[in-house]
Design brief:
The complex is a heterodimer.
Chain A lengths: L15 H17 L14 E6 L5 H12 L3 E6 L11 H10 L4 E6 L4 H8 L3 E7 L5 H15 L6 E5 L6 H12 L3 E5 L15 E2 L3 H4 L5 E4 L4 H5 L6 H8 L3 H4 L7 E3 L22 H24 L1
Helix pairs in contact in A: 1-5, 1-11, 2-11, 5-6, 5-11
Chain B lengths: L3 E4 L2 E4 L4 E3 L2 E5 L2 E6 L8 E4 L4 E4 L1 E6 L12 H10 L2 E6 L10 H14 L3 E6 L13 H7 L3 E2 L9 H12 L5 E3 L4 H4 L4 E2 L2 H6 L3 E2 L2 H17 L3 E3 L5 H11 L5 E4 L1 H5 L4 H5 L12 H13 L4 E2 L8 H4 L16 H10 L6 H16 L15 E5 L4 E2 L18 E2 L2 E7 L2 E5 L2 E2 L6
Parallel strand pairs in B: 1-6, 2-7, 8-9, 9-10, 10-11, 12-15, 13-14, 15-16, 16-17
Antiparallel strand pairs in B: 1-4, 2-3, 4-5, 7-18, 18-21, 19-20, 21-22, 22-23
Helix pairs in contact in B: 2-3, 4-7, 7-8, 8-11
Classes of the chains: A alpha/beta, B alpha/beta.
């Protein structure tokens, strides 16, 4: 496939075929990750900078691992102890990094649209690792890869996403991806975190959660942030856990027990209770491994596009 | 449980808007038969000739003061007052000490109510933690524990965003709101209504906009969110107009208190602190508008806002005395005087507003209706006999009542809850009867 995008900014900008291509490459890298030793030379001579202006460990380490396994040089930029503290603007900092001749910039920022802004500003490849409440495309890709490996199909697959949809870039990107691939998506959660306008993403809102998860193949639980309670969206963590945390009765469906996904890290006792022994119905650990694989696929694909 | 046969009375069917001279048999907590000439030698017989027999009255707004101020009123004294007042169910407001803002307190109240076993007590949960207007209470857990609605009664919710989110969040749990509307920046330390009396007496005024502006805001919030809201104790004509306008667009309801239909601001001069109440007594024009709203059906529920206070507190200076009127056991006769004697509505319509409509709003499917299979909650009223109000005889501990010595018609004579007679001929039936 001839790749026509300089950057990976959002699932919204990708065609079904492009998503499928990235998943195919992701699948290849996922299998490669099961081998040891695992070092490729494909990315040798390329340089990646992780430009993370919002706390993140998982995603940053996942990108770093993906880059290194491809043979790339990886540099981490964090906002603590950086020029930001000295009052330098986002634009100037990003331009400086660009002048250092990095090939790929992976950005995370709390404002929606920053990845796109940098992509227009800078000549290097920009990968969006989460911008505000907008998109987190590599998270969606890793979720899709996990689903594809488990089910082998998307057409007619039923996924219920539960929790703070309003503030979730994960829910946005995943829903856009699932819809493009022919799956059905249902949203549920506290109504304060699930305004009706969220249906513009192509999902159907169903209350209560018990109804939304009826007959689905997958329940995708979103991480709830403590700040949302402080901002008044729901009254307490214990109430959230009681009504919106995973329930045994959501899982007890004859024959087809739904599988569980979560973008991590799980708030134990909140989205998923301590009582659940997860091995048999959880895809959460597999999601982590698929994360490295799709990030390798993304890096490879963007760099390959450059060669063409 | 013994059977009860009520013979010779006129049955009131508020759901159909009709009266019928038929008998009714109660058994095991349910209405088991309605019809002409029912005979049952094993049943306890109530002769109801010249009496009205209808589904039990449901009072959507009372203060029982428990926990925290049990010496002023509590579930037992409040239940006795309710039974005497012909109420088979009361909805108790959460502004207690501590307020009913968490599930443990709700469970406590329901256990106490069961222990007392006189009337049904339905607790309301707080909209905000501690009624402080700062954060949402745990509506889901409150509902699981048994609250029937949400209210910060005694205070309005000042923060629009908080109520906006609460309106959205509560729908997940199908909880309706009972709203006390008062913008505290406007009511401030006001004592009585703005108007002639405040001007002449120099008392601090509570402007009508204090209630109206918050009600208007909350009508809009409810309209945009789809929340089910009910406005309690309307007092101004503009409130009735606002309600009428929004009823074209969405289901929304309101209630009044008997004192706002029988007293006006001028009465404060003679009655003193006994007439100090929130919202304050307004003008004759406002009172007329409330009655018109009732006649039209815009105001579909009649409540009490029974607010008992100790005499020591009410005997302070006007400015220091608390707001509130104790009226639970005379609410029905007060409405009979204000509405039926004046020809504004008839008994079946009164029953609709005191039983059927509150049951409908609260989702009490088996109450408010006379029909075989429904709950045996029955109130029997003597429409003809007049009696004088003797506040000192109140079962309620709250003797703060401005209606002392008033002659009123329409007193309840039997209150039957869950198939058990709890009040007969004006007296509480102390033990399991017979």
């Amino acid at each position: 496939m001839k790749w026509k995008h300089k950057d990976l900014l959002g699932i919204n900008l990708l065609s079904k075929e492009e998503i499928e291509y990235l998943l195919e490459r992701g699948k290849y890298f996922r299998e490669f990750l099961d081998c040891s030793p695992k070092k490729m030379k494909y990315g040798e001579g390329y340089c990646l900078v992780n430009f993370f202006l919002e706390p993140s460990t998982r995603t940053r380490v996942s990108f770093e691992t993906a880059g290194r396994l491809l043979g790339m040089e990886v540099v981490n930029f964090t906002s603590e102890a950086s020029s930001f503290q000295k009052g330098e603007s986002l634009e100037d900092t990003a331009k400086t990094l660009s002048r250092m001749k990095f090939d790929v910039l992976v950005v995370r920022h709390h404002q929606s649209g920053v990845a796109e802004y940098l992509a227009q500003l800078l000549p290097l490849h920009v990968i969006n690792a989460g911008d505000g409440m907008r998109e987190h495309p590599t998270q969606a890709l890793l979720d899709l890869l996990t689903l594809q490996r488990k089910f082998g199909y998307f057409q007619g697959l039923k996924v219920a996403i539960v929790g703070d949809i309003l503030h979730s870039r994960v829910a946005r990107s995943l829903t856009l991806g699932l819809k493009k691939l022919g799956a059905e998506v249902f949203f549920s959660g506290p109504p304060t975190l699930l305004p009706l306008a969220m249906e513009h993403l192509g999902a159907k809102i169903i209350f209560p959660v018990e109804e939304a998860v009826k007959g689905v193949d997958v329940i995708y639980l979103l991480r709830i942030q403590k700040e949302r309670q402080e901002a008044g969206y729901f009254p307490s963590i214990r109430e959230y856990a009681h009504f919106f945390g995973l329930k045994e009765k959501w899982l007890d469906r004859e024959n087809s027990r739904p599988l569980i996904m979560h973008p991590g890290p799980v708030n134990r006792g909140v989205e998923i209770g301590y009582s659940f022994t997860e091995e048999d119905f959880s895809l959460i650990e597999e999601q982590v491994t698929c994360g490295v694989a799709v990030r390798m696929a993304t890096l490879e694909t963007l760099l390959q596009g450059e060669e063409q | 449980m013994k059977k009860i046969l009520i013979k010779g009375g006129t049955l009131v069917f508020p759901q159909k808007g009709v009266f019928q001279d038929v008998d009714i048999l109660l058994e095991s907590g349910l209405i088991t038969r309605i019809g002409k000439g029912i005979e049952d030698s094993r049943a306890h017989l109530i002769n109801a000739s010249n009496l009205l027999v209808g589904p039990g009255f449901i009072n959507i707004h009372v203060h029982l003061r428990e926990p925290g101020r049990e010496t002023e009123e509590n579930l037992l004294t409040g239940s006795r007052a309710a039974a005497r007042g012909g109420f088979t169910s009361v909805v108790s407001m959460p502004n207690t000490h501590p307020p009913i803002d968490n599930p443990i307190l709700v469970r406590y109240l329901l256990l106490r109510a069961k222990e007392i076993g006189l009337v049904n007590i339905f607790p309301v949960g707080a909209i905000t933690v501690g009624l402080e207007g700062k954060e949402m209470a745990e509506y889901g857990l409150l509902k699981e524990a048994g609250v029937i609605a949400l209210s910060d009664d005694g205070r309005g919710v000042q923060d629009a965003r908080l109520l906006y989110l609460a309106f959205q969040y509560a729908q997940y749990f199908n909880l309706p709101f009972i709203l006390h509307e008062e913008d505290e920046n406007l009511s401030r330390d006001g004592e009585i209504s703005e108007g002639k009396v405040a001007t002449l007496s120099g008392k601090r005024a509570i402007p009508r906009v204090a209630e109206e502006s918050l009600m208007a805001r909350d009508l809009v919030l409810a309209y945009r969110t789809g929340a089910r809201v009910h406005f309690t104790h309307l007092s101004t004509s503009l409130e009735v107009e606002l309600l009428r306008w929004f009823q074209e667009k969405m289901p929304v309801s309101a209630d009044v208190t008997p004192h706002h239909l029988l007293l006006i601001e001028d009465d404060v001069l003679g009655l003193g602190t006994e007439a100090k109440v929130k919202p304050p007594l307004r003008s004759l024009e406002d009172q007329k508008a409330l009655k018109e709203g009732i006649k039209e059906g815009v105001i579909s529920i009649l409540a009490s806002d029974h607010a008992p206070h100790p005499s020591e507190d009410k005997s302070r200076s006007f400015s220091e005395a608390p707001f509130g009127i104790s009226n639970l056991e005379i609410t029905v006769p007060l409405y009979a005087k204000a509405l039926i004697e004046e020809g504004i509505i008839n008994w079946v319509e009164l029953w609709e507003k005191l039983s059927y409509n509150p049951a409908l709003f609260l989702g009490l499917d088996n109450k408010g209706i006379l029909e075989e299979g429904r709950d045996a909650d029955i109130t029997i009223v003597d429409p003809g006999t007049r009696k004088r109000v003797e506040v000192s005889n109140f079962e309620s501990q709250g003797k703060n009542c401005p209606f002392e010595n008033w002659s009123l018609p329409g007193w309840p004579v039997y209150t039957i809850v869950d198939g058990r007679i709890v009040m007969a001929e004006g007296s509480i039936v102390e033990s399991e009867f017979c």
